Structures
1.
Amino acid sequence: MASTSDIRNGLCIRYNHDIYKIIEFLHVKPGKGPAFVRTKLKSVTTGKVIDNTFSAGHKIDDVRVETHKFQYLYPEGDQFHFMNVEDYNQITLNKSSIDNPGLLKEGELVTVIINSEDEMPLSVEMPASVILEVTATEPGVKGNTATNATKPATVETGATIMVPLFINEGDKVKIETAKGTYKERVKD
């Protein structure tokens, strides 16, 4: 058993007969009344995100987890196949357990969180950013550069992101996986 002081991003807890991963939290100490922790929880089974508030000192049932490095192999419908880089065992995970599956490139290394009690994979943690090639985008029009002007671009995984006007087809861009947003252009 843990308490609200142990809450941190990535912690897996048992709540309402399901396992949730904490994706955001904020300790709040109002001027009047008791302190509390406002959290955003993501279900590792359904992918549904809920908001919840725990009063300070509330006991939470944490789940012991292990992390392992896996390589992404290929998609098959809503199933994604991964291979453990240490023992080469393969696992299949549902699309809902991956935070931003559209940015997952074949061969990418990810961290898979596994429940220690029953060896079931819970969720996939993507790297902080990925580098992908732009496969399709409209050419930027010269002189059409108002502040922070963006255009849609399709990257090699099929995902569509908003990029600045100077990005062209064939450019490699760094994308922040947590938000799915353009970060910078990468030179070869």
2.
Amino acid sequence: MPIIVAESECFGCALCVLNCPEDAMEITSSFIVAIDEDRCTDCGECLDFCPVDALAEA
């Protein structure tokens, strides 16, 4: 299942980015996480690191 970002909750702490094993995430210029769907394997590792639960499986 794809990982989605609740943009209203994400504040760009980058914990998910730092812990993504596929290097499929980045912080945008508006301090929101963007996910590269071609690189993301939907492993869910990032979900464990988001302190505000801004990431979820679709």
3.
Amino acid sequence: MSERITKLYYQAAEGNLESKEELIVSLHPLIISSISKYYKGDEEFLDLLQEGRMMVLECVENFNRDLNVPFLGYVKSKLKFMYLSSSGYSKVVSLNDSVGEDEGELIDLIPSTMDIESQFLKDEGKMVLNGCIERLPKRQREIILDFYFNYLSVVEISKKYNLTYRTILNTKSSALSNLRKEMEKTYD
């Protein structure tokens, strides 16, 4: 069933109305199951059913294929949290809660695109680089920032500061040499 749902999702995401309708019909049992399992309120069943159908359509629009998460698992979790939150029923939810028979755990739906350690090191490197750039003489700092961060060409920089092309190249070269020394001092 999961493969059929995935195929219908792809077609629906491309704008195929028939596939959207068929997807809602195919997920009807899941919607009913989610209502009975997670909703603890007094609202009318037909309203809840309609909300579930709308959630399926919202999932088609908002699902991110790049996360490497099954579409069906995504829909199950969205329905679960929609019905839990709309009933006012609060329950502690574990990231290890099952999201379906073979869909895995809730934690599997959380994108793990960022490696925390490498992101920390990257941020720390940026801070060190910024500090070293700040310690450069003013003209060298301006040229480095314009060339590497503002993406100006040497010609544009020479016009900006009314300096010759060669002067900009020499200043940039000196700035890079000084920057390298500052970086070495920082990491020694």
